[in-house]
Amino acid sequence: MKTTDHFKRTIQMYLEQRAAEDALFAKNYRNPAKNIDDCVTYILNYVQKSGCNGFTDGEIYGQAVHYYDENEIEVGKPIQCQVAVNHVVELTAEEKAEARQNAIRQYQDEELRKLQNRNKPTAKKETKVEPSLFDF
Questions:
Q1: Number of Cβ within a 10 Å radius of residue 60
Q2: What pTM was estimated for this model as a whole?
């Protein structure tokens, strides 16, 4: 399924926080028959069936909790889409280090290209001067 990873991570972070605060939900959240991918598929199918384009956080989180609370629930078929999320997800220290290394590598490659292009001789354009009628 090609849903936005940001959306999936946001839902998962909410569910983990809720499980830490609510012992009853934590039991349902640890159900081995349930997983975050099916949860997201369930939410996307719910959204598609509703016909609406925008939802509050509470509505979406409520559907995620509903997925984990119900033992017999129809998930639906995976939907290929992009989901817009207006939450900022905190990166782990490892993800920050990886992003930093990628940025440094990209900067170094760009500077190397500039240096290589500076040393290359540029082809000089020859301008042809065409005679005008007044030259005769």
A1: 19
A2: 0.61
